[in-house]
Hints:
Helix content is 21%, strand content 31%. It is an alpha+beta fold. The chain has an eight-stranded parallel barrel with strand order 1-2-3-9-10-11-12-13, surrounded by four helices.
Amino acid sequence: MEAYRFLKPPAEFRIMPFWFWNGDMDPDRVAWQIREMAAQGVGGFFLCPRQGLAIPYLSAAWFEAVRHAVETAARHGLKVWLYDEYPYPSGIAGGEVVLEHPDAVHRVLKPYHFQLAGPADWEETFPFGRVVYAKAAPLDEMDRPRWSRAVDLRGYFGNHQAEVVFQKTGLTRYNQKRFFTYGPVKRLRWRVPSGRWQVLVFVEEVVRDFKYYGTFVDPCHPEAVQTFLRLTHDRYAETVGDYFGTIVQGVFTDEVHYLGRIPWSPRLPAYFYEMYGSHPAESLHWLVSDGADAAEAAAAARFRYRYMQAAHLLLRETYHRAVRAWCDQHGLMYVAEVPALRMSGQLYSHIPGGDSAHEKLGRSLAWILDEYTGSFRNDPKAVSSLAHQLGSRRALIECFHSVGWSMTLQDAKWMLDRLAAMGINFFNFHAFFYTLDGLAKHDAPPSQFFQNPYWPRFRLLADYAGRLSYALSQGRPGAVLAVLTPTTSEWAEGQGTSRAQQLREDWRYLCTALAQDPLDFDHLDPELLAAARVEDGCIRLGDAVYRALLLPPFTHLEQAAWHQIQAFAAQGGLVLAAGHLPVVDATEAGHDGLASNVAAWFGVPAEGMAAYWQPGRASSPAPAAALAEGDATAVNPAATAAKPCWWRGPHRTYFLATEGSLRTANAALVLIERLRQEAGLPVYAEGQPEQRAACLLHHRVLADGSGLVFVSNQEGREVAWTLCVTVAPGAGLSGQGDMLQASGQAGVQAQVERWDLEAGTQAPYLTEVADERGILRIPVRLGPYESVLLRWRTEAGTRVFAEAGTQAATEAGTQTATEAHHPVETSAQTPTPSPAKAGGLPLAGGRSAEVTPLSVPRAPRRVLCGTPLLLDAIEPLMRTGEDLPVVRVPLPSRLSLTLHQPNALRLGRFRFAWRPGAEGPNPTSVLAGAAAEGPWVEVKPWLHQVADGEAPVLPVSFHQVFGTPLRITVRYPVTCAYLAEFDVEVCPDEVSLQMDQGAIRGAWQVFVNDHLITRAMMQPVSSYDHARIGVDVRPWLRPGRNRLLVLVTAAQDSDGLVDPLYLAGRFGVVYRGGEPVLTAVPAEVGFSARPLPGLPHYAGTLTLAGTVEIKDLPDAEVFWLAWDGWPPEFAECAELTWNGVAVGVRPWAPYRWQLLRSFVKQGANPFQLTIRTSLAPLLEGMYFDAKEHRMRPVTDAWHEGDG
Length: 1203
């Protein structure tokens, strides 16, 4: 890891946002926005065609704009990634694929269940689709369907026209009335025999009402996939292929998956038959039903596993393999952010991707882990684990969508810290918007781009994220523990069943407990385990090296994975299992052929697992074959469950038997203690559990043998605990496979450095001597939401506990796609990854060897809190800040206020009325009068405003195509009137009416106190977005009540007043009785995390100024300045000027500043705090209430007289 690259991370490690192309894409504006990205430290962008795009997608104009953007990016040193769809999910090429392949429209498989009693006549209607399966099974005395005696009902189906059509026309002059029918459905008519029956029907239905194009493409249709590549990827190659592998880095595919609850494609039955030699349609009942006896239960489990595995492989081999192959051929990297049936779904990604981090500061870590753990798409740990195992240097998360407009730099930093501490090192921001015009601002916001007031300070976050990404891309992952994912058991047990749910929840429980211990670990799919190399008591997979394997409760496991576990254990690897062992081979006949084998390896009798499913039973007492009583430790004396009991097999294989679920037995603590004793963990935590549970950590081993750990405090409280690092190289394996005690190398000395992610510098953290067990103890103390990056190295000749001979990932330069990735060579017909080099996987990342030794040149400038200051004269005084004294000063209760932008009154709520037809611009019309008495509506398309009413009434028109039903539509045009009123208490000198160009859809006129305003009168205004327009309305305002009327002629459903109008100027705003009043701007305010009094809708930069009296100067030459009275909920960007000196910027916690004693004087010390707010009060009329963790109307922030 090189100091100069850490200080100035290369572009590829920096933030890569989705850049939403959602407007006219003016070439000059495109170039300006790229320059802005470069200036603020952004590394590049994903070029995303998005809703609102005015250029025809895939047209010549589109590719001309793409070429322009790529060339401009090249001039400014930015990298470009191609997003392969408009808008999303990928695979349909803007709808063109299904035009060429009508048979490739996406279809879903829907089950329908009925219970009947006969004899009786029964008739039922189903959607018009292909009936794939229809059977009726008699129920036995225990209400279990006996599918072996089922009756096939497919022959009882027929087509039916369900809708009666009358038409007022004829084919001759003698007859003017016709009768038709319409609306085909499938109808089943069956005579139910005596007894009770369960009927199950599966219907294949075409997806007809999906976003953007009404349908979607079947990603398992190989010809359609090739057409997608030809229409999209080949065109990009023609346009910017000369930049491939240099400026253009790769291709991003998004959200490709099966749409139905049950994975389905018309191609699946044939693929299933190819793999398993049977037709799945005959056994579909096992997807939703269990067997009546042991044989049927085994058949059901076997079929469910095979069905899901076939669906998993079909999608992966048809879509992802094809796109990966195209990228390999063109020297590009392939990154996917997609749902997956199992973790190995992204086997073909050069860079695995996911979608996570959508919270505001204050969500507890426990809540977040519970939300995401177990989702292969949303759990960052799953994504980074897969990257480690595929040999990919990078792991990507698409982050921040839908956090909303209150998102701050603090929110972003807090979420980035969490992602990084879970192994993510590629930060894909959602998103940078080309424009916020009109409704475009509601596309899963926010935009973290130039529109936000914090943008001039965005470089602080960009540099921080770049350093974090660079550091955590070096070396190799240091986790030695893998947790096997129980997907095969979930499939076999039947997803959603109580047994599958218990298995899943215990897996999630264990992973959450490990994360909050905190311990570093990886998830491991059994399919990938089967492809790993097992040697020297290690599981080697890509860049990952595991010495310990943890099995959460399992029932079914692929035999190839079990053979790897056996080999690992036989070589001395540590295997811990809990709750239930995998006793059934998921891939074969479904018999319990593994049962005795697996149980013997863990020394467990049959009754040792039975209690897991029966929480009422006590655990069996530990016989002599079990571990000593002292090892069978109760972890919670208050728990009602019986004491968890350890069993040990002939190797280092341990099984923890529990009564009921692991969560009920509180088993995680027992398992973690065993891991600490047996696993030789290179890094772990000691201290109070509640202190450790606030943190996450990620560990890496660098090429020179030094260690790197990143720790993030995710909670709003200070924490302190001890980081324990094993620095004893004697820890290893004896010839008998037993782990040697890590007790050598007592007294080894290690130097620990703190690599400052904000400043880009390095400084000594401590020098520590390892204890008699070779454990280095590093104290960790973090304030609320703080993080730290530490690097340690031992004295000459001693290496940090690391895998000898393991080559670390490259640490130098840019990794180009052409030299780092080899073509895919796996077979489409193989249900597990084919054996290839490095464990049989298509590894994503290359490896290289040496790096330049750490060199920290003396810089003539230092960075204090983000602001460069010339400090040569006092450089010897500057320290890391960890040991600086803190001087606390009172924050004055009243501060003078200066606004850097005009204040605003947001008008987003109007009285509403409408009339059929078009009306002229008359502010005194009947319609305008009706609006004064009309209902209140929020700004949105007019049809939604009508629908929100208590009794919606619409003007309608009728039309009918020959032979089809009479259709009803809204009769256009319709004239809508919107009325808002406000009071003027103090007439400001300047007031303009402002709006987005797209705020009003349809022909419109605006009246301010009956003065007409047209579109031609509006001019561009300097505001948060280039689409902003305005007009001076000060001459038309009057003291007292003022009215603003908007008339819109709507010609389609999406017309109307869809976005707020604003009054902007030098005035204050208060609400009296819910009505807005323009007043004077307050001269003084108190400091608050809420919108300030008089400024409920203000968005921009403001300065608060005051004076602090200091009687005695601090003794220290350098110290931290902190404020008493600083609101703990504050999370905006703050800048401090002290006695005229710009001290620095704090974009996030801790809100303290480093001062020199010479900056302070006795007596009065004037200061200014400059705050950059969020856009939420302006765009949404809302603010984030941190105490309640919810958005609230700005009118809730203050009552008149407060503040």
